Amino acid sequence: MNRRTLAIASLMPLAFVSTATAQDQSQQPSPLKPMDMPGQQQYFLPEGFITATGRPEPISRLVGTVQVIHQDRIAKSTARSVTELLNENAVGFMSEWTPGQTSINIRGASTEGQGRDFRSQVLVLINGHRAGTANTSKLSSADIERIEIVRGPSSVIYGSQNMGGVINIILKTGLTAPGNVVQADAGSWNLLEGKLASGGLYKGFDWYVGGPASTRDNYAIAGGAPELNTAWTRYGATGAFGYQIDETSRVEGTVRSDGIYNAGFRGSSANLFAFDTRYNYSFDASYLAKTRDGQGNFYFQAYFVTDVDDLNNPSPLSALNAPASRTTMDHNRRQLDILGARFQPRYKLFSGNELLFGLDWERSWLRSDRYRAGGSAVTNVSPQDNNQTDNVFAVYLEDSQSFFDDKLIVRGGVRQTWGSTALDWTPFSPRLITGTNPYQATTWSAGVTYSFTDWLSGRAGASSGFRAPTATEIGANFTTTPIGTTIFGNPELGPETSQQWEVGATATWKGGRFDAVVFNNTISNRITPVTISSTGGRVVQVQTNSPANLVVQGIEFQLQADMFQSFGWRPPVDGLFWNVFGNGYYNWRMIDYGANPLSGTDMALRINKYGMSVGTLFGQMGTQIPWSFQMLGVLRGPMWYNTEESLSPVFFPGQNRTVSVYEKGAFWVWNSRLEVEVIKDLKLFAAVNNIFDVNNHPIFIAQDATPCTANRANQNGACGNSMPGREVIAGFQFRF
Fold first, then answer.
1. What is the pLDDT of residues 223-257, one digit of tens each?
2. Are 173 and 42 in contact (CB under 8 A)?
3. Using the 8-state DSSP alphabet, how is residue 665 labeled?
């Protein structure tokens, strides 16, 4: 190995392994060891390390709760999108409107229904920078190394949208995914998928190139009935390149594209005519360096992101609109461009101390247009979002100090953000009053961790977050949504804010880990559309004061264990392994003090009261034909929903749409996967999703079933929405 190769090796001290991977390799993980460099995606990480806090560090040092979806879980999943991965791991409430659109709720903070990044209370990152979208359904799972979900008071390095959590998607590189892979599979409803990838290292250079493509026709629901307008096509590509300059510095870059195309959009009116195309691409370049004595580190990243939502949502049949107002075309295209940079040096001032300093700069442009056609009363109106230009600059500090041989760690930080939102000229908005609204926000975090014994540690922390108002929310004019509601802006709006606290503990033992945390998240100064008339009327944006807060309190847990090691059992057959894993939450308090009095409840809406993912993986390695079998169950707990569906007056008398609240009951979905390595490096696999053929949906109340519980007159060709029924998939993977 030459000096450059040795230098790269010094920057990835341990290979990333998980319990299952360790079993696959018939060896145990190496002892944990701090990493030298602050890159977001570049190096093998030992289990228990994350990078979402701005530098690689053990989870045990964090005062917030972290959930990591490792490569072993991703590789054994049939998930096509990040949404499906998050759902399989019970990250939070997944509001899956269509195969191409999902909103997420973590600790009461939610992404916006259309996945618009600038309206989200949950921040989605790719390689540590803003993804430009909060709609994880448009992001493929194919080229992902791992996903880090950071809840609560973990750091202050993020700005607007970090109110409930951060989802950091870390892509593969030549260092984390060397070798070549060819994979293909087919399945129910004419599913066809293919993946190609190649990664490697040569004389200081490392590279990864990969790309997935897939397509599926309309799926069938339980019982075999077709669910029309649910077909989609996905494709994308990722290229990651790095170069080790010398033993102390390195450059790297990633370019990627991802998207879902011509995805049917049934929505709340079971629309058979609507479809969307949504895609996202980005480029990031980073420079990493460290001092020769290892005391200081330097990280700089520049990035560019483009995010497009091309929405085609006609409403040709619904009786909610008079015949003259029904649309045969309603095309709204929205494009968000982001240019940004991050500068994050950190230094060990003295023994046990590390100080991180950060500067963020970002400029973004949102451009949207809309065209409609149809009945004689249909006119072109303003898009669903006014055009806007945003500028953000922030400075932050975070310091950590360890005491008593690292048994006690104290950390805290503060961030000051200055921003401005400019309301720009927007098509078909002749009365729009353009202008710029400045804002500023101070956010902070603080907490402690303490190791009581070598197997038990505890933590406690608190933090704050915010979301800046958008141009549409502050705009002195209106936009019109697809159902004809007029939305009026409010130029007096300020940022939404949140405050969190949590107390948790982690127990570790040979072969296992269990983590539990109690949390409270209070969301204040909420920007809320107040509906004066549910259809064809007015909606006014207002900002609620303190008594109208949303408060969520609950407990979250994580478990992973090697059963043979945990209980000291001897496997009955050489090479046999058995792992169990789980993740879940229970929200015992979900109160919206600003709830509409007409709804009849103060329960927080679109949040599962509880949810859980449990699974087991067992198999045999070291034999002539290695194999593994996984069973995974996902529990969708009850939630309360002011549905936008028009429900049948027979089954739901007196419904006031968007006001009447209904409880949606809990249900389980079970999936399975079998893998067999028939010859070295050639693996065959088969999977069955929704084994028990459940007819339900994570959000919609009116399932596509008989009798029809939707108001058929107000639908657009169908009767309710149901998720896919039993699905069978089979394929192969070849590595060389």
1. 889 999 999 999 999 999 999 999 899 999 999 99
2. yes
3. P
DSSP string computed for 263-292:
EE--GGGTBSS-EEEEEEEEEEEEEEEE-T
- Contact of 577 with 621, CB cutoff 8 Å: yes
Kindly state the tokens that stand for 81.
């999108």
| Summary mean pLDDT of the chain | 87
**246 CB contacts (<8 Å, ≥6 apart)?**
3, 4, 7
Which residue's structure tokens are 């390149």? 241
Helix, strand, coil percent values for the chain (each to nearest 5): 10, 55, 40
Q: What is the pTM of this model?
A: 0.90
- Whole-number pLDDT of residue 52: 65
Question: Using CA atoms, how far apart are residues 214 and 378, in angstroms rounded to an integer?
Answer: 37
User: Alpha-carbon dihedral of residues 32, 74, 27, 677, nearest 10 degrees?
Assistant: -170
Nearest to 99, CA basis, from 204, 233, 191, 271: 233
DSSP 675-721: EEEEETTEEEEEEEESTT-----SS-SS-S-SS--B-GGGSSBS---
User: One-letter amino acid identity for 37?
Assistant: M
67 forms beta bridges with 149
Three-class SS state of 178:
coil
- DSSP one-letter code for 14: S
372 CB contacts (<8 Å, ≥6 apart)? 327, 329, 330, 331, 378, 379, 380, 381
> Could you tell me the pLDDT band of residue 45, with boundaries at 50, 70 and 90?
very low
- Grouping H, G, I as helix, E, B as strand and the rest as coil, residue 598 is helix
Chain mean position to CA 20: 24
At residue 484, the pLDDT reads 53
User: 329-340, pLDDT tens digit by residue?
Assistant: 999 999 999 999
The size of the chain, in residues, is 736
Q: How far apart are CA 69 and CA 613, in angstroms?
A: 12
pLDDT for the residue numbered 634: 96
**Among candidate residues 183, 77, 141, 76, the one with its CA nearest the CA of residue 731:** 183
Task: Identify the burial level of 132 via C-beta atoms within 10 angstroms of its C-beta, where 0-12 means exposed, 13-18 middle and 19 or more buried.
Answer: buried
Q: Inform me whether the pLDDT recorded for 22 exceeds 60.
A: no
Please, are residues 14 and 46 in contact by the beta-carbon 8 Å criterion?
yes
Residue 676 amino acid letter: V
CB atoms near residue 678 (< 10 Å): 12
3-state secondary structure (DSSP) of residue 88: helix
> What is the number of helices (H) and of strands (E) in the chain?
6, 39
Residue type, 297: N
For residue 718, pLDDT beyond 70: yes
Q: Given this model, what pLDDT does residue 48 score?
A: 60
Cα–Cα dist 316/328, whole Å: 5
Query: Is residue 19 within a helix (H) or strand (E), and if so which, with residue range?
Result: helix 19-24
pLDDT digits (tens, 9 = 90+) for 292-339: 988 999 999 999 999 999 999 998 988 888 889 899 999 999 999 999
Half-sphere exposure of 438 (CA within 13 A, CB side): 4
Give alpha helix (H) positions in 47-129: 71-75, 82-88
State the DSSP string of 330-361. Answer: EEEEEEEEEEEEEE--EE--STTEEEEEEEEE
What strands lie across the sheet with 109-110, from one edge to the other? 93-98, 101-106, 109-110
Average pLDDT over residues 98-110: 90
